[in-house]
Amino acid sequence: MESGFNMGNSPSKTGNAEELVKTTLFERERNGITYRIPALVYLRHCHTFLAFAEKRTSPSDCDAKILVMRRGTLKEDGTVQWASSEEMTTASFPNYRTMSPCPVFEKNSRTLFLFFICVRGNTTERKQCITGKNRTRLCCVSSSDDGHTWSPATDLTESVIGETIHKWATFAVGPGHGVQLENGRLIIPAYTYYIKYRCCSYPIPFTVLPRALSIYSEDFGQTWHMGKMLGKKSCECEMAEIIDHEGRSHLYCNARNSGYRCEALSENSGVYFDKPHVARELVEQRCGCQGSVIGFPAPEFVPNDDAESKACGTSLLSPDTQTWLLFMHPTNKSSRRDMGLYLNRSPLHSSGWDKPRIVHRGPSGYSDLAYNGDKDQFSCLMECGKESELEQISFMSFTLNDVMQTGNAFCL
Annotated active-site positions, please? Predict the structure, then answer.
């Protein structure tokens, strides 16, 4: 584990993929301590990144203990200065393990909410699905000073889920970032293992399947509600707002599945999602893997690399949307390898995904994306390594021009 301060990478100024490098924020320790499940948020008003992860005593989900955070300050030269890791002691409950960080920033009050789940003891997800006995709680902490201090943890299970919890074998949020829509609504992506049928109080085998949904707030985080589940198998998910050419909002959901990702759109800000379908351009491994998606303003043009042609650039104005999407996920069909970035210039069409740009050759796992609108830059956290994706969680920044390069990879 790194201590003190260190300087992170800056995005390529030339679009040369070879220039991009990774900065290790969390690294597996010799005593077995492992860091997993990254989440990233960029606070634009104070030029600060907050990077979250689970701290575990082993790679196993059962050995998750507490959430950790590192603060990164974006400098004028584009580098990021990272403070040392700190444990989030208020984001916990006695006899529960803390998992699945999901931050969202409320711009009006400048309040940062960090959602997570707490799971009783060492109860596994599998055991909850077999017995139908939920041992998971929906929890949240908040900060009004950009993550320097945090409120005590609040258990929102009863107020948000209520009696429906008896139909949920287990559930989780994200993992990864939430989003605030243009209308002010806060969105936390979530999923549940829904119990459709029981026999003698136990779920009927093979009928407990994951379903994605949103948890949302219409009053800037004062109260929270849950939306309706997707009508198709869908697990860990992230969501992004798409603004079409007429200024209408669409909430896009991208969820873990088997074989291919699951996509859906909501026309009512996350209350429910219509017509979930598989995205055949976005491949999944057999058991799937978490992925990250983010929306950003569609550019009118991207400057060409050579100085003489920068004034004109290349026209890229989308005919049907003001928003593009960027998606991050391992690109290998058979194993968690070769982390890639997929660009979608027509996100209201399911076939709009470009072929991926590889950002890490080798073992890759969970990830999270953030966008800096001031500099039109992207940043990400990703699980990666040489022999295993559990070796480290790394940070990297890049530009849209980098994503659109036709070379092989950003970094090897």
Answer: 61, 366, 383
